[in-house]
């Protein structure tokens, strides 16, 4: 099955109040394993809402979300959290690293939350990922000792700790200068190719969207375009 399938997804906020407003009006979408897609569209078009639904951080008002062939809408919180911990990696614009912990402890966190022991094998995998993002030498620093681009690379290493088949990224390069943005983007591409994880990346940056294999465009809560393209180098 595809890694992700959305059927008739609708989302309203403020349900049951006078301010109820539907912001996603029936989204259908299939993402195959290993696909590399950009999600674009103006501010307020529903990109973050859609990403939060796909990430099982929020539930739709109508419709179904299949993750690796499994329907998710009727899962309880425990099941949803478990599935998220097995299947989904997240990278956000503001990376949510925890400064009380070292860089390597931040990277290990998703595995520990999933029940892994903080043993040598877990630590070794975290260090390999930090090495892959070029930051092994900073493993024992605190996140705030690193630059914004470096912090975002730590967040990518953290997201990959569980080997997710789906990697979701919400404006991961949004607050980076163009050089740091290019480095971060190159990492998504590299991990997409080496681990085969599907990537869905929300971006406002046309340069970034041009380098993805597929571009999904939202407008006013609807998917209005879905095009395959040859990624620019
Ligand atoms: P985008 O990520 O494309 O900027 P969002 O998903 O953030 O779009 O927002 C889509 C629409 O939903 C916007 O009109 C926004 O104001 C509205 N919205 C987002 N979150 C909430 C919320 N918690 N309550 C009410 N409306 C919301
Ligand atoms: P954005 O840059 O898209 O505005 P936010 O910082 O608002 O990103 O985070 C988007 C959503 O993801 C929020 O609802 C937040 O609670 C949730 N979130 C952020 N980090 C994590 C995480 N590591 N695990 C689970 N949910 C998270």
Automatic annotation (TrEMBL):
Listed GO cellular component terms? membrane protein complex; plasma membrane
Q: Where is the ABC transporter domain?
A: 4-233
Family in the record: Belongs to the ABC transporter superfamily. Macrolide exporter (TC 3.A.1.122) family.
Gene Ontology molecular function: any one? ATP binding
> Which superkingdom does the taxonomy of this entry point to?
Bacteria
- Stated EC number for the protein is 3.6.3.-
> What's a BP term from Gene Ontology annotated to this protein?
response to antibiotic
Protein name per Swiss-Prot or TrEMBL: ABC transporter ATP-binding protein
Keyword terms of this UniProt record: Antibiotic resistance, ATP-binding, Cell membrane, Hydrolase, Lipoprotein, Membrane, Nucleotide-binding, Transmembrane, Transmembrane helix, Transport
